[in-house]
Write a structure and sequence with these properties.
Layout (H helix, E strand, L loop, with lengths): L8 H12 L9 E5 L2 E4 H11 L13 H27 L6 H28 L5 H15 L4 H25 L7 H21 L2 H10 L9 E2 L3 E9 L2 H12 L4 H8 L14 E3 L7 H8 L11 E3 L2 E11 L2 E2 L2 H29 L5 E3 L1 H4 L5
Helix pairs in contact: 1-2, 3-6, 3-12, 4-5, 4-6, 7-12
Length: 375
């Protein structure tokens, strides 16, 4: 409740990038080949067009020709790696069961439905009087821009879903038996803890970055809480009148927790995990009005005036100061081990993929064909 939505740029771009891989070139010009798989210039151009706005998130600047060239190489590397995984899975004889094919069809249909819905949402947000009609126009324009049709898009999405399942099956085969030992996992915890203590002590806001991104599997879970944080509990109600009435009761000496049980609508306050309160500090991932009101509470026991957000009206109490401390391995073992194992296996698999891609007998690039992409 009240958490800001953290959306990965990669996820936000996923649908458009999928369309970027579906282009149908009027004249097939190759950017690269991976074994018997062809990567067309149109695919690379569409990938650039649909992702260039997000280049900075991958560490690239498009302000110079050199920067553009590096970003194009990065995109082509990704296309090559993706195609290499498919090529190697098929080379290894991986096939799909009937159930897996059926599941791929469901995935492809969902991806198509999500793509269409994204255009409906865009049309609705534009204030169009006829969102569906406007969505059709936007969708058609996007299809034309990417050189494809609805039929070809659906076929491409199905092929992508099936290939994705092939790659996943092959990856599972390659990673069979690949895992860190209990001692290695404990050492990973110790090493990660040392890194986090240094980072969080120098920049406490990084704690909340880890908290957010660990939920997506990008970072290890937080293993250390730095100095300066405290915990709050709140009474959330729907309207200002009720909030003011509750504040009057609190000012008259009535018990916060008693009133919370009576009036609160925030399910997070009933969650045992939040029994001690929400952890707050600068950079915490809460809606702005709630966070600002929380940070304004100077000492334990202070209660805020009612503040409004999209969730309703909040009355917030600072309940305790959180001392700097390590989070014991046993308290975070399941989540930490899952991250460490996944990261280890991903690194192991990536080394295999890098080896495949480095095989010049399997990869052919045609730089003369894509030298002008982005320029």
């Amino acid at each position: 409740m009240m958490k800001k939505k953290v959306i990965s740029i990669l996820l936000a771009c996923a649908l458009l990038l999928t369309m970027g891989f579906t282009g149908c070139a009027k004249q097939k010009v190759l950017a690269a080949k991976v074994g018997d798989r062809e990567i067309t210039l149109t695919q690379l151009e569409n990938s650039y067009t649909n992702s260039s706005s997000y280049a900075s998130y991958s560490g690239y600047s498009l302000d110079t020709d050199e920067g553009i060239a590096k970003y194009v190489d990065y995109l082509l590397d990704n296309l090559i790696a993706s195609n290499m995984k498919i090529y190697q899975a098929k080379l290894a004889g991986v096939t799909l069961t009937d159930e897996e094919v059926a599941a791929a069809k469901e995935t492809a249909q969902k991806n198509y439905d999500d793509t269409w819905q994204s255009f409906v949402d865009q049309a609705t947000q534009s204030g169009s009087s006829n969102p569906n009609a406007y969505a059709k126009t936007l969708f058609t324009n996007a299809l034309v821009k990417n050189g494809t049709t609805v039929q070809k898009l659906k076929a491409s999405m199905l092929e992508d879903a099936e290939n994705g399942t092939l790659v996943d099956k092959h990856k599972t085969m390659l990673l069979e038996g690949v895992a860190l030992t209990d001692d290695e996992l404990k050492q990973k915890y110790t090493d990660e803890l040392a890194v986090q203590k240094t980072l969080f002590d120098s920049d406490p806001t990084q704690y909340f970055t880890y908290e957010s991104y660990s939920s997506y599997g990008y970072y290890a879970p937080p293993l250390y809480i730095p100095d300066g944080f405290f915990r709050v509990r709140q009474i959330l109600v729907a309207d200002e009148e009720t909030a003011l009435m509750i504040k009057q009761k609190l000012d008259a000496g009535e018990d916060f927790e008693t009133l919370l049980k009576q009036y609160n609508t925030d399910p997070g306050m009933q969650n045992e995990a939040n029994a001690a309160g929400y952890l707050v500090g600068k950079g915490a991932n809460f809606v702005e009005s709630f966070l600002n009101a929380s940070l304004a509470l100077e000492k334990d026991g202070d209660v805020s005036n009612p503040v409004q957000s999209d969730y309703g009206w909040h009355i917030i109490k600072r309940v305790s100061t959180e001392p700097a401390h390590e989070i014991a391995y046993d308290d975070v073992k399941e989540a930490a081990n899952q991250y460490f194992q996944s990261a280890y296996q991903s690194e192991y698999y990536q080394k295999i993929v890098d080896g495949w891609v480095a095989d010049e007998t399997l990869v052919t690039r045609y730089p003369e064909n894509y030298a002008s992409v982005g320029r």
